Amino acid sequence: MENKEINNQNQPYQQPNAAQPARAVVYDTMPMKNNNMAIVGLILGIFSLLGCWIPFWNLILSIAGIVCSAIGLARKQRSGMAIGGLVASIIALLISIVITFLYLIAITLA
Questions:
Q1: Which residues are CB-contacts of 43 (< 8 A; sequence separation ≥ 6)?
Q2: Where in the chain are the domains?
Q3: Cα–Cα distance between 51 and 38 in angstroms, integer?
Q4: How far is CA 47 from the centre of its chain?
Q5: Rounded to whole angstroms, how far apart are CA atoms 22 and 24?
Q6: Angle at 46 between CA 52 and CA 54, to 5 degrees
Q7: Once rounded to an integer, what is the mean pLDDT over residues 42-50?
Q8: d(Cα 41, Cα 36) in Å, to the nearest integer?
Q9: Extended strands (E) in 26-81
């Protein structure tokens, strides 16, 4: 009994437990690593599809799209933008070759 009375004399009331400080919620704020070459390849592929009726300029544009998309595909496997740019650039290159061939035939016959 005496021990309890001594403890009660030193601390007249029970102190509440200290509250833990609230932790801030930190989300992953690191920027995502974009596959810039895949984006460039997709843009070049779309532009080369839109301008496939231009005879010589489109050859350069579609080849550049193929190269950029291939580099983007090599950097990150299974990138949808790189595959889309590669497909668009190859289709535009085939159409551009046909258009350029028809253009050259039309010039020689004229």
A1: 65, 85
A2: 35-110
A3: 20
A4: 19
A5: 6
A6: 20
A7: 93
A8: 9
A9: none
